[in-house]
């Protein structure tokens, strides 16, 4: 990859404009992969922005999503196609950060062209797989409101979805760090990629259960119908907050599935050499915070209220960061914390 300071500064300028919080989190990563991860985040978010621009119809969104994805399937960027995406979508952005990202999409792709062949190949792989989840949202869920609510059909379909939108990121992360860190080069990439996939799936399942009410009101039920049927429920029943007690056995099953994936992610984290403190922190934080979030989801009395945002409070975030940083990502201290969360969330 290019080590041109101007290239580095351009990327970080875009990141700060698009997501200050992600930019600050990015700084914990090892320098050797920081820029690649940052640029990949921008590409993933751009694809998500295209898919979520609900002021244009689904057919157009799908067209432009595939048009964007096509840029990673060739050795030459189609600049006219990118300019078309910008011209159509920028006027419809409600969020200034999304608008800025689309405006600077050409800059991002020019930076991508400066990367090594290996890094481009890894990003190409990610951008071939990740948009499948966005395409699934556009095609599997035809409506955009509670009146057009649609549910996934099977647990396998849910598993496939979580792979597309997050599991593949764990695989991508593993491939990238193994390529750039001499310590990580000793890893069995295939084995650790499989563990990384489960890590990502656990994080996505956490997002699904905590955001369930808002997704339902946007026409999307990620809880497979057979699970609901076992509890005597239909997808539309989850729009009634009074059905939360009846839904709790299904919710608990999804939490257990998320925790099983996250526990595999914890084993992944502890396999990172102790000398790689930054990488350990970058893995410990999302797992511990996912556990803290699931702890709150488990007992939330208003989980089916779309106005309520169930998440770990800022004080908890700071505590997790302080404990892990001050102990230099010590596995005994952090694992004791994780085991306490597992005990709380263990199946009754």
UniProtKB/TrEMBL annotation:
Pfam families, per the entry: SQS_PSY
Signal peptide segment: none
SUPFAM superfamilies: Terpenoid synthases
Source organism (scientific name): Nitrosospira multiformis
Protein name, entry field: Farnesyl-diphosphate farnesyltransferase
